[in-house]
């Protein structure tokens, strides 16, 4: 499963520098039997459901650490001036310098935990339909509640909202609707 934070073709399971650091988990609040690399991989998978709640800066921060773990120090030429996203990613990664993969993993895990404080890496990630519930439960959009209007009460603006071209055309041709009137002139 590719993440939008990764370059095309890279996945959270690629072997471009797979690391296992055993006891390097430092002050991470984790089960000692889990390695830092396993926690990092779990965090990368969990991040898939958090992308929509993360800011651009947080995503760049996470991207840079992911690259540092998977590839190592920045080893690619700087993207062109017009590749704004690529340039930002490159600069975030380059700024890590000689940061160790272990440190990058710890920072990555901590950032994912900050995005979702309730995340517990010991609980397996949901798969399939269960995973589609998103961050914090099922995702339901209710920004706009469509008001039900009886057909005889609709005006030209209601037909425009419905994209009902036939009714709009009939209203304009009937000349019962003044389409050139400014809003301030409407009663």
Sum up the structure in keywords.
single chain; 187 residues; disordered N terminus; mainly alpha; 6 helices; 0% strand
Give a description of the structure.
The structure is a single chain. This protein is mostly helical. It is built from six helices and no strands. Helix 1 packs across helix 4. It starts with 35 loop residues before the first helix and ends in a 13-residue tail after the last helix. The N terminus is likely disordered.
The percent of residues in helical segments reads 25-40%
Termini gap: 57 Å
How would you describe the shape? elongated
Portion in beta strands? under 5%
H-E string: HHHHHH
Largest sheet: none
Protein name: Acyl-CoA-binding domain-containing protein 6 isoform X8
Short description:
This protein is mostly helical and about 190 residues long. The chain contains 6 helices and no strands. The longest helix is centred in the middle third of the chain and has 15 residues.
Write the layout of secondary structure elements.
Blueprint: H1 36-47, H2 56-70, H3 84-94, H4 101-115, H5 156-162, H6 165-174
Helix pairs in contact: 1-4, 2-3, 2-4
Organism: Castor canadensis
Protein name: Acyl-CoA-binding domain-containing protein 6 isoform X8
């Amino acid at each position: 499963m590719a993440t939008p934070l990764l370059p095309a073709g890279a996945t959270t399971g690629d072997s471009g520098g797979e690391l296992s650091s055993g006891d390097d988990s430092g002050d991470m609040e984790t089960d000692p039997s889990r390695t830092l690399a396993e926690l990092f991989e779990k965090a990368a998978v969990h991040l898939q459901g958090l992308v929509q709640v993360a800011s651009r800066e947080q995503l760049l921060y996470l991207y840079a650490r992911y690259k540092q773990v998977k590839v190592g120090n920045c080893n690619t030429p700087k993207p062109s001036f017009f590749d704004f996203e690529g340039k930002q990613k490159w600069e975030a990664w380059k700024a890590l310098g000689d940061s160790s993969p272990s440190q990058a993993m710890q920072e990555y895990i901590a950032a994912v935990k900050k995005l979702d404080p309730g995340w517990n890496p010991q609980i397996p990630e949901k798969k399939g339909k269960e995973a589609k519930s998103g961050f914090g439960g099922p995702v339901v959009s209710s920004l706009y509640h469509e008001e039900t209007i009886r057909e005889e009460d609709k005006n030209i603006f209601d037909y425009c909202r419905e994209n009902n071209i036939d009714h709009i055309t009939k209203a304009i041709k009937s000349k019962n609707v003044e389409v050139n009137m400014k809003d301030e002139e409407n009663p």
